[in-house]
Structures are given as C-alpha cells and as structure tokens.
Amino acid sequence: MHEISLDRRGLLKVGLLGGAILAGGGLLSRTLSASADGAASGFFVLRDSDLPMLRRLTPLLLEGSTAPSDMPQAVQTTLVSLDLGLHHLSPALLSQVRQLFDVMSLPLTRGPLTGIWSGWEVASDDQIHAFLQRWQNSSLALLRQGHASLLQMILMAWYASPAAWAHCGYPGPPKV
C-alpha cells in the first residue's frame, strides 16, 4: 500500500482545488437554479429543491429528541420554524444559505461533495450519517462550516418550537 503524505505545498494545492470546486459548484448552482428561486407552497423562503434534503436530514438530526411516532410532525414544525428564521435573515446571509442548499441539492455538486449520488429521497440513513461525518471532519474549512451551519439551523429551528421544550425540561419563557 502506498503511503500518502502531504507537505505544506501539497496541502495548499488540495485546499485551493477544493475551494475552486466549491466556488465553481456554487456559481453553477446559482446559474442553474435562478429559475427555481420561488418559495415552495406554504413557505416564505424554502424552495421545492431544498425540501427533499431537509426532510431527510432533519429526522436524523432530531433523533432522540422526540418519539418516533411524533417525528413527522417534528420535521414539519422544524421546517416551518427554519423557514420563518430564514425569512428574517439579511439578504446577504440568505444568499449564503441558499448557496449551501443549492450545492447540496444540485446533482452535479451533490454527488461529489456529499456522496449522495442518487438523490436525497432514496439515500439511506447510513449514507446521510456518513455525509454528515465526512463534512464534520473534513480538512476543508468550508465543508466543516457547512456542516456546522446545517446543524445549527436545524437544531435552532427545532428548539425554538414549544413542541421541543418538554423533552429538554424547559418550561417555556416566563409569563409577563
């Protein structure tokens, strides 16, 4: 077996190549998704192209926070809360979130960057866990930031909902 070692120059080349791939994918996805910028039915911001990915990621990230029988409602509650939060972002931040969602949804970039080649709807839980772990532990800061952003957005959306409070023992905000 060959041993791979990277010196500083090699590491810089890998980082630049990864950055170029992500930037090119983001530019391409923005170009190809320009016509899909309208919000999905019932949402302010989330688009039809975002929903398959979010509907597969959310239950895995919420595992253990609600009973399995309540998970479909928890996912819907989380998506509505996420959408409302995104609706109140600045245009610049919303653009970055959309770029992240585009890179994860567009087949041309989704496969190479996430390992989900066949689409979110048919990806197994193991494939999605592997993707999340790969991004979390990536040598590319951009992928680690993408992982952290996804995790924070989804978990904040869930825990902003009163449905999540009982599980963690939070009685809710004080009555004024």
TrEMBL record:
Instruction: Write down the superkingdom of origin.
Output: Bacteria
The protein's matches in InterPro entries, at most eight in alphabetical order, are given as: TAT_signal
Q: What is this protein called?
A: Twin-arginine translocation pathway signal protein
Per the UniProt record, the lineage of the source organism begins with: Bacteria, Pseudomonadati, Pseudomonadota, Gammaproteobacteria, Pseudomonadales
